[in-house]
Amino acid sequence: MPAPILIVGGGLAGLFCALKLAPRRVVVLTPGSIDEGAASFWAQGGVAAAVLDTDSPERHAEDTLKAGAGIVDARVALGMAREARARIEDLLSYGVPFDRAGGKFTPSREAAHSERRVVRVKGDTAGRAIMETLVAAVRATPSIELLEGFSAQELLTRDGGVIGLRARGRDGLLRDFLSHATVLATGGIGHLYRVTTNPKEARGLGLAMAARAGAIIADAEFVQFHPTAIDIGVDPAPLATESLRGEGAIIVDRFGHRFMADIDPGAELAPRDIVARGVFASVAAGRGAFLDSRAAVGAEFPTRFPTVYASCMAGGVDPVTEPIPIAPAAHYHMGGVATDAQGRTALAGLWAAGEVASTGVHGANRLASNSLLEAVVFAARIAAHIPATQEEAAVAVPPSARDEAAAPRQDLVDELRHVMARDVGVIRDRAGLTRAAAAILRIEAATTNVELRNMALTALLATSAALARRESRGAHFRSDFPRAEDALADRSYMTEAQARAIAAEALK
């Protein structure tokens, strides 16, 4: 009998892939509880899909290309948009209670969309509703085995291909899990930054493991900063969903001036990178930034956006009667492990889906609510693509060993997050990126902890890619190269060795 398919990560991409693989045997490894740990629970906006008669997949793809600032893979983006409705129907079949009226979807509009096409649940609870539904479906599926509390450490390889994963359990013991097919669904890198909307699990561990195994990393420099994280001193920062701006909320400074209207014709509905830089500049100048929903939402806030309302009230802000303090926060990584249109990486036996992957659909700046769509579309493709009859040759499993450096030093973690926010953040330049590279390499050398070394490698990949891209494009903005260059309108690809070489050259 073939070994079970191994899925690393319990977010939307991992669970959807597991369900699509049924009744084939699947093992899902997660670092924490499947009921809370994934960033997918936190998604507020919804799933982008052309579900109205006035819309089309072609228009959806066109908006995706525009937001991606010239480097979106047009063929892959159109394919994703055309599959969107079918994946929405899949989620409905599992029981996701999408907002509907008279049997028809009632989607919202978000920034840079030309139509209302964000299919949501109760305004701002789509992520949690989808995940709670899928968790229940997974727990009820006999072919899926859940192994919670296993922190991935490294991919196991043989003859240039991936044959499984080494993970540390809650007991501190290292265990090897063997499979002819491993699917990385480990999420993004947001928690490498001091201010982020992402949970602790989003530390780029899967990306680093793939790079160490020899995978190609694409577009690592493109980190999207959400412009409207609620600035109340909470880590991770709660998110004020973009749907609020879609419903008419405005961004003002402490003097009540609507400054985004001075920066871009789209004002609050400009692409996220533009809004993030505008908010960042206002905060840096001491004018502050606030999301004012009083006129647009007002007294309906508690019922229309209950998640945001609860977060605000917990921080002492009543959004019904006062503006919400906001700041840009690391939110989504457009880069990741490079895959083809079926989610296959450059390494035999390894696939990647969700935020850890880079499929080419996001380009330099993800279109709002395309993240959940990408996760389900490519998870379904991977499930259909993994060979069904491949036999796994016998592989000797090393005896379990105790990980003597099970917890990373918190001071080094805090320093890494500070460095990334300061030097590899909303606005970058060569001096800051070079300073970041030096600090990251020093942190990496100062620890034997595998997880911290993986965090440092992912940080180095993002930093080196940002050093190499001497222009500003999408979410990547360099003050020393403030314009986009037509000659550089291509995706970036990098190995671990190349990232280290770029850093070493910068530090000469």
Automatic annotation (TrEMBL):
One annotated Gene Ontology cellular component of this protein: cytoplasm
UniProt superkingdom: Bacteria
Cofactor(s) the protein requires to work: FAD
FAD-dependent oxidoreductase 2 FAD-binding domain: residues covered: 5-372
GO molecular function: L-aspartate oxidase activity
Biological process (GO), any one: 'de novo' NAD+ biosynthetic process from L-aspartate
Pathway(s) where this gene product acts: Cofactor biosynthesis; NAD(+) biosynthesis; iminoaspartate from L-aspartate (oxidase route): step 1/1
Localization of this protein: Cytoplasm
Alphabetical keyword list: FAD, Flavoprotein, Oxidoreductase, Pyridine nucleotide biosynthesis
Name by which UniProt lists this protein: L-aspartate oxidase
Origin species: Methylosinus sporium
Lineage: Bacteria, Pseudomonadati, Pseudomonadota, Alphaproteobacteria, Hyphomicrobiales
